[in-house]
Write a structure and sequence with these properties.
This protein is mainly α. The protein has two domains: 1-32, no CATH class; 35-99, Trp Operon Repressor, Chain A, CATH 1.10.1270.10. It is 74% helix and 0% strand. Helix 3 (36-53) runs antiparallel to helix 4 (58-65) and helix 3 (36-53) crosses helix 5. The chain starts with 7 loop residues before the first helix and ends with a helix.
């Protein structure tokens, strides 16, 4: 875990996210919290991660998502050398068959 982000404010934000109970609640909260561009950037990174996990090429990902190769590379680095957060979420989503 990155100790630079471990603050009381971040803990409070994560506690707030953990209180959300539906997709609609997520929309309401994140639309208030983030700008449209911030939310789209986050969702783009998540889509890139899913496509990398599925073995798609950088070119395929860039064409489908509009992500730059720098963004794709950054996400790929997180998948390979990060804290396994993406894998945790993908595994849980597969078990629940979410987003299919």
């Amino acid at each position: 875990m990155n100790k630079k982000i471990k603050t009381d404010a971040v803990d409070s934000l994560f506690d707030a996210v953990l209180c959300l109970q539906s997709r609609e609640e997520c929309y309401s909260f994140f639309e208030d919290l983030c700008t449209v561009n911030e939310l789209l950037s986050l969702s783009q990174r998540f889509e890139v991660a899913a496509m990398l996990k599925d073995g798609k090429t950088y070119l395929e990902i860039a064409e489908k998502t509009g992500a730059s190769t720098a963004t794709i590379s950054r996400v790929n680095r997180s998948l390979n050398y990060g804290n396994d957060g993406y894998e945790l979420v993908f595994g849980r989503m597969e078990k629940k068959d979410v987003g299919k």
